[in-house]
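Budget justification note: compute hours in this period were largely spent on complex prediction jobs such as the one shown. Inputs:
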Amino acid sequence: MKKAFYLTTAIDYANGSPHLGHAYEKILADVIIRTKKLNGMPTHFVTGLDEHGQKVQQGADKEGILPKERCDRIAQEFKNLLVTLNISNDDYIRTTEPRHKNVVSSLLQDLFNRGEIYQAEYKGFYSTRAEQFLQEKDKVNGKWPEIYGDVTEITESNYFFKLSKYQDWLIKFLEESDDFIVPSFRKNQVIEFLREPLNDLCISRPKERLAWGIPLPFDKNYVTYVWFDALVNYVTAAGYGNEEFKDLWPADLHVIGKDILAPPHAVYWPIMLKASNLPLPKQILAHGWWMSSGEKMSKSTGEVVDPLSLVEQRGVDAFRYFVMREMTVGQDADFSLERFESRYKTDLGNDLGNLVSRLFHMTATYEKGVVPKVELNEEFEQKIKTNFEAAKEKALEHFNAFQFNQGLEQIFIFIRSINKYADERTPWKLAKSDLSEDRQKLKTCLGVMVESLRLAIQMIAPVMPGVHEKVNQLFGLPACENWKTALEWDFRLEGKTLGEKIILFPRD
RNA sequence: GCCAGAGUAGCUCAGCUGGUUAGAGCGCCGCACUCAUAACGCGGAGGUCGGCGGUUCAAGUCCGCCCUUUGGUACCA
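Corresponding output:
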């Protein structure tokens, strides 16, 4: 069996409700996986939840409930979001699941047995109030701020993973790879980061300080901390230890935010895998952040409009279209309600929605809803077919390079050209004529428009799966499964009776 | 401080390895049309491509310096 294209998102941290950032990453990953499917690849798409750690425990303590109860509730919120956003994930992994704990234990034990993990003293400044070690950078004016309360220097025994011995190997690997990290400029940031000598990674916390975690298999007085828990989800979900593992691993693509590229995904993770004798993922895609007039968006800034509320107001497809159209993958973008409304009204309503509306209306009134046979192939027809071929080539190329904003632009250029074609042929005038020549032109025009719209709708499927299915239903087509066969200019709908006209993107 | 991204029409952005009068969408102003969600189509105004200097026959496009802005600098998507 052919290896599936295995794609993951970062797993969300179970400490707070989902916001635009979470939604965007899922949509981006979903659009990518849908394009892979349409290109004929078998796929496997996993997302999930990171549930251990201090913040989760503290959050639960504050509410007076068990960490697991809190995680269950938050997991449900995140899962609901996936449904709302029409995300087509095949699996949802939670780090509290037995399958995950087993894999973490087994990897840790193996590394410990082979001397990749060792015990040592960790000396640092500890804040009892914040329940954490502080760094020099936490100081303000050379002093620890009030919020940390009493800060004392303590020594604690912990376990460490030998990162530093792999530093040279990693630098060499990164320098030789050309598309391991996308966008490429981020690779330089990672290599820059690696210019400083790496410290070994502290991977444990004593149980008395943190109980909510996966115990170290070789020392039950400790739990493992953060990265050996969170990152390992990618191999857990690939079925590490089972038969299916070889069909999925290595991952083809990790979709993550730019904030967790270096060091976690570009430094810790490759080294963890290398030390475990596992192959590295093929590619890491680091996306940017949504900003609000230059400010990073988060729940703490108290937005006037919650972006996610637009999903309910304008529909999930409009929302997916907006974030894909507006964001240059890898860079930051601004989220503004005005931009959203403008995209909704003009691109979706006026260009696409209105085209659907006018075309189905005309076909119904002029041809009783039956797609007529195309009898002419004059300049206008040749031109729009050329437009389609160009849009197809460019759009698919952009999609493959994760440049969805540009791919969508190409598709909408084509959609606008369908409207233009209607203006050139003026079917509403032809319909008033009895001349056989005009009848022929009318049939041709409608047939060509139907074919053009059909093709545009197939290309838009990964971004707007809902609209795609709806319109395909009116065409009497099932959801598109493979672009190769679907994106052929062949008038396959000739003679079919179309469904009734619908308003795809209503104005209020 | 160091590293990186961004700085192109009012707004959001395209402009690959340097090469004709710098492009698109939105917004604005006109024209036209009436099948359609008062939608579509056409035309127009609007830019010394952040600044200075350099390389070149030729530079938003390469080099240097500077300015503005965002992010990273060991655990918030």
